[in-house]
Amino acid sequence: MNLLPVVIIGAGPIGLAMAAKLAVRNIPFSLFEKGQTAGSSIKEWGHVNVFTPWEMNVDEDAKTLLLECGWTPPKNDEIACGKKIYENYLLPLSQVPAIKANLHTQAEIVQVVRHNLDKTSIELRKNTPFKVTFKDTQSDQNNTLLARAVIDASGVWNSPNPIGVDGFHVPGEQENASYISYGIPDISGKDKTKYVGKKVLVVGSGHSAMASLFALDNLHENDPSTEVIWAMRRGKILNNLSDKNTDAIKARGELNSALPNLISKEHISVLAPSRISAIKKVTNGLDVEINVNGETMNVNVDFIIVSTGFRPETGFISELQYQLDPVWEAPLYLVDLINPHLHSCGSVPNHGVKQLYHPEPDFFIVGHKSYGRAPTFLMKTGYEQLNSIANHIEKGEEIEPSIKTETRSCSI
Ligand SMILES: Cc1cc2nc3c(=O)[nH]c(=O)nc-3n(C[C@H](O)[C@H](O)[C@H](O)COP(=O)(O)OP(=O)(O)OC[C@H]3O[C@@H](n4cnc5c(N)ncnc54)[C@H](O)[C@@H]3O)c2cc1C
After folding, report:
1. By three-state DSSP, how is residue 280 classified?
2. How far is the CA of 13 from the centre of ligand 1 (A)?
């Protein structure tokens, strides 16, 4: 088994850092990325400024490998956008010889199983290799390899939540997909002409929604006919928001502090608590049926931006014995530490294999995906997860899962 590689799924910051940690320990690995290059998801939100400074975004083992290749580290306290992280960190890291030689791009993992065992087989799992199937996205051909361990660092960026408060698409959402964007569109850059002078409905109450509001407000300065409707399920926006004096992450606190002034502006209306029930294409845009505070109304808009969070994709690991919390879809023993009702990004304590435990031996979900539907993930805590996993793989010790705590009930 020890001669087989560790398979890492996804070459985002976490998958690449895992590769770096295995490389410095001389443990063989194969890193699979479905995009054209490493960092494919971050590249898609390259226009967004992250909240955390460089020192929190760079992994220590990755830094060691990069410095050996003559890398110039960015200033610790600088705030970068996704594009800078991609160009100045992830891409160079993927080119470090020890990683480049084991990185397979345009290779999508489509199945992970225990070789010749089904999910109900309890015996033999620990001593049976994983069989990993990946699709070459250029030729559409499937290939397989055996692995001693599998680290799923595939993120959540590709599975955004739909508009419906029940977790499904609302009628008309899929039919009108060309008028609807998920995540954070590049409103100040390549998508500017699309949104300027338009009426835009922003759905969601988190920082991604807020980032779109601020960008649309800037467009209003160019063209005063730009209007924004902000719809959120929650009734209160500011209740739990820390500000520039109290937030553990300065840039996020500053954004929160600027929000009351933003939403007091005439061209921004807030509908809360609200629930969208249907979308219909009409000659002058989209008619959106929305229930606000118990009353149903119709609003007419040109475009919708949906920032209602993400969920983990589990299809390709469905034959493994993984174990997720029924509410947040994070590993069961981790969920108390990341529960967004108890923690914000920045207050999640360091954790490792004991919290990331699954009944499936030597299988771990890490990085953004390990937080399931919780939006509290930071790269820094992800790197800490990996230190623990790399040590575990190196030493091969049994894992005693951490005992769940009383705070569990708060997540429901
Ligand atoms: C807009 C935004 C702002 C954020 N700001 C911050 C911040 O300020 N600070 C911070 O610390 N964190 C921030 N985060 C959270 C988090 O750190 C990032 O999302 C980070 O990119 C997560 O890293 P990851 O490697 O877990 O996942 P990703 O970066 O999503 O990487 C996953 C990779 O896996 C690939 N992949 C997916 N499925 C497969 C498959 N089946 N086979 C092969 N490859 C696959 C994807 O193409 C992708 O390249 C932010 C997130 C977002 C979306």
Report:
1. strand
2. 7
> What is the C-alpha separation between 399 and 402, in angstroms, rounded?
9
Residues touching ligand 1 (Cβ under 6 Å) are 9-15, 32-35, 40-42, 45, 48, 50-52, 108-109, 153-155, 157-158, 184, 208, 316, 367-368, 377-379, 382
Instruction: For domain 6-158+310-411, give its CATH number from 3.30.450.20, 3.50.50.60, 1.10.10.60, 1.20.210.10.
Output: 3.50.50.60
Q: Could you give the residue range(s) of every CATH 3.50.50.60 domain in the chain?
A: 6-158+310-411, 177-306
Ligand 1, pocket-test mutation among 59, 157, 207, 381, most atoms within 8 A of CB: 157
Strands (E), 293-342: 295-301, 303-306
Q: Ligand 1, closest atom to CA 10?
A: 34
For the domain bounded by 177-306, which CATH number is listed?
3.50.50.60
What Cα–Cα distance (Å) separates residue 278 from each residue in 65, 173, 253, 272, 322?
51, 7, 34, 17, 35
Per-residue pLDDT for the chain (412 aa), expressed as one digit of tens each?
A: 889 999 999 999 999 999 999 999 999 999 999 999 999 999 999 999 999 999 999 999 999 999 999 999 999 999 999 999 999 999 999 999 999 999 999 999 999 999 999 999 988 999 999 999 999 999 999 999 999 999 999 999 999 999 999 999 999 999 999 999 999 999 999 999 999 999 999 999 888 999 999 999 999 999 999 999 999 988 766 555 667 667 777 778 888 888 989 999 999 999 999 999 999 999 999 999 999 999 999 999 999 999 999 999 999 999 999 999 999 999 999 998 888 877 766 678 889 999 999 999 999 999 999 999 998 899 999 999 999 999 999 998 888 887 654 443 332 2
